[in-house]
Amino acid sequence: MKLLPAFSMDWLLRPSQGHIYDRQLVILSLALMAIGLVMVSSASIAEGIAVGDDAFFFVKRHGIFLLVCLFLSALVLQIPMARWQQYNASFLILALIMLMLVLVVGREINGSKRWLALGLFNVQPAEIAKLALFTFLAGFLVRKQDEVRSHWKGFLKPLAVMSMLSFLLLMQPDLGSVVVLFVTTLGMLFIAGARMGQFISLVLLGMALVAGLIAMAPYRVKRVTSFLNPWDDPFGSGYQLTQSLMAFGRGGWFGEGLGNSIQKLEYLPEAHTDFVFAILGEELGFTGVLLVLLLQCWLAFKALRIGQKVLMGGRQYEGYLAMGIGIWFSFQTVVNVGAASGMLPTKGLTLPLVSYGGSSLLVMSAAVAILVRIDFEWRRDNMQARQREAL
């Protein structure tokens, strides 16, 4: 198994186009992780004192998660993409087993059974299921591309797999992850060449199903109505959103200064997880918000660009998977930012690589490592091809 070249400080000075891996992608990921560590450190002080009588309770855990992420990423980087393609169905079966297991022996937090307790850490199978589904879909689209493009059967088969995962996720319940799976699956099918009529029909059906799922659960209806006008009930159903909006309002152009947030002092629930973006807006202002959005946008663009170039180079599996990761990252960013700013209903989705959360951080770090590996293999093979031509 071929290893990636060892990391050293001189890679900062070498031109990106002459390097064997994408330095920009690595720097982007590390920059977002660093911003996440700083913001979690600031946003979690009050919660850490309340939960563990330690202002740095969540900071220490987040730091450990980051170290584990770096170790996991180093391992994932060594796995050839051929192995992901070979074992994608096994990975999906493992995710299905974990989703079933969490319903039986999972840990319940805030009325949702989403976590499996593994010693010091809680693992969220929903995050693993996202990556597992996208690795499987990429393999399916390679095997059944003609069928997807020409028959409803080929279009509906991957949706049936997604529906199995979605059913188990709704049992937890976790509608946010279901929406991420649905949107990313649609995006991957569209890129693979599914007919527009099929695509539009499924979008309309998906919208109808989501509306039905919202109507069936009173707490979801409250979330939607409070999102439309949170000030109608600022101390009830609209409380979290109004506090988030006040955080953005206090931030202005340049923020109150790092560490000077008022909303993190037990006013804004989930300040270090789902609503860390609001605290970032309060402390760093519009400039900090814009910087993080640009970094997230750049990361998603890099993923889509990698997918495009490897697809054009004939690497279909890697191309579809990179595109899926790009859609996943960009959509989850939109949902998290939209929920924090009042543009979308509140959903329990983290801001990629920034929010506190072990499972999300680990899986997204692994996804970035897969992107680096895809780009590495493409560059390596193209370099070898040029060397052969030169000879």
Automatic annotation (TrEMBL):
Q: What is its main location?
A: membrane
Stated EC number for the protein is 2.4.99.28
EC main class here is transferase
Q: Reaction catalysed?
A: [GlcNAc-(1->4)-Mur2Ac(oyl-L-Ala-gamma-D-Glu-L-Lys-D-Ala-D-Ala)](n)-di-trans,octa-cis-undecaprenyl diphosphate + beta-D-GlcNAc-(1->4)-Mur2Ac(oyl-L-Ala-gamma-D-Glu-L-Lys-D-Ala-D-Ala)-di-trans,octa-cis-undecaprenyl diphosphate = [GlcNAc-(1->4)-Mur2Ac(oyl-L-Ala-gamma-D-Glu-L-Lys-D-Ala-D-Ala)](n+1)-di-trans,octa-cis-undecaprenyl diphosphate + di-trans,octa-cis-undecaprenyl diphosphate + H(+)
Q: Where are the transmembrane segments?
A: 62-79, 91-109, 115-142, 154-171, 177-194, 199-219, 275-299, 320-341, 353-374
Output the superkingdom of the source species. Bacteria
List localization entries.
Cell inner membrane; Cell membrane
**Pfam families, per the entry:** FTSW_RODA_SPOVE
Classification via InterPro entries? Cell_cycle_FtsW-rel_CS (IPR018365), FtsW (IPR013437), FtsW/RodA (IPR001182)
Cell inner membrane is among the record's keywords = yes
> For this chain's UniProt record, which GO biological process terms are given?
cell division
UniProt keyword terms in alphabetical order: Cell cycle, Cell division, Cell inner membrane, Cell membrane, Cell shape, Cell wall biogenesis/degradation, Glycosyltransferase, Membrane, Peptidoglycan synthesis, Transferase, Transmembrane, Transmembrane helix
Bilayer disposition of the protein? Multi-pass membrane protein
Pathway stated in the Swiss-Prot or TrEMBL entry: Cell wall biogenesis; peptidoglycan biosynthesis
Role this protein plays: Peptidoglycan polymerase that is essential for cell division.
**Would you identify the family this protein belongs to, as annotated?**
Belongs to the SEDS family. FtsW subfamily.
Q: What is the protein's given name?
A: Probable peptidoglycan glycosyltransferase FtsW
Source species of the chain = Oceanimonas smirnovii
Q: In the UniProt record, what gene is named as encoding this protein?
A: ftsW
